[in-house]
Amino acid sequence: MRYETPAPPAELGEVDGLAYSLWLPEDDPWAGLVILHGAGSCKESHHDFARAARAAGLSAVCFDLRGHGASAGALDGHVLEDVATIAGLLGDVPLALRGSSMGGYLAILAAERLDARAAVAICPASADGLWRGLRGGQFDFRADVPSLEAFLASNDLDAVVERLALPLLLLHAEGDERVPVAHSRELARRAPDQRSELVVVPGGHHRSVQHDAELQGHALRWLRRVMSVR
Questions:
Q1: Is 39 exposed, middle or buried (0-12, 13-18, 19+ CB in 10 A)?
Q2: Contact 102/112 with Cβ under 8 angstroms?
Q3: What confidence tens digit (pLDDT) does each residue in 124-155 have?
Q4: What phi and psi values does residue 188 have, to the nearest 5 degrees?
Q5: How many Cα atoms within 13 Å fall on the side-chain side of residue 219?
Q6: Model's pTM, two decimal places?
């Protein structure tokens, strides 16, 4: 029996000290997608979704946040500038963001700043939850703690979602042991765009949703649908 090795990314590189992997479809992409990992994770944890996005006709980029993986420096209050730098690798295409946990939190914040067309957030962390994890030594990554704490204090997710001028897809497992599903339910209640959607999966755990192939497909179909109309 023969097994095919999945095609690698089109490019592995570094920009401004940020290590990234770039995934390009065969034809011109209909959109570009920035994929953000969670606290203590790395870009490789989301390569399965990047491959699925590429197969669906998107260009996609994963990268290591500062303090993680192969990227330089420590995570700090300039993280949204880093997301913007990485988004620039996708060129002049409609933009969307997808993130998990801390990455979900950052995806929503960056979507507003970058004038994105849509955002997908998987079990998105709250600013308060991230602050408590940072103070409690729960995270295994390099951080400029004073700078990051100031950033979290200035970026409450509830307030950002209430003014978000784009559709938001929230995916959450009921059995999430780190971020309560009630957080996503509250964000969905606050989201003003009528195309926003909440998917709650029975059971599961904090990492189960991001690698579920059916939910990955749902997210890609949702992106195609909501990004077809400006």
A1: buried
A2: no
A3: 999 999 999 999 999 999 999 999 999 999 99
A4: -60, -40
A5: 30
A6: 0.96
How many whole angstroms separate alpha carbon 48 and alpha carbon 213? 9
Helix and strand element counts for the chain (H, E): 8, 8
Mean pLDDT rounded to a whole number for the chain: 95
First and final C-alpha spacing in the chain: 47
Treating both helix axes as pointing N-terminal to C-terminal, what angle do 127-135 and 102-113 enclose, rounded to 10 degrees?
A: 130
The overall longest dimension of the chain from CA atoms, in Å, is 55
Residues constituting the chain: 230
DSSP state, 167? Answer: -
Residue 215's identity, in one-letter code, is L
Q: Which two tokens stand for residue 95?
A: 């933009």
Give the separation between CA 49 and CA 32, rounded to whole angstroms.
13
DSSP string, 46-102: GHHHHHHHHHTT-EEEEEPPTTSTT--S-B-TTHHHHHHHHHGGG-SS-EEEEEETH
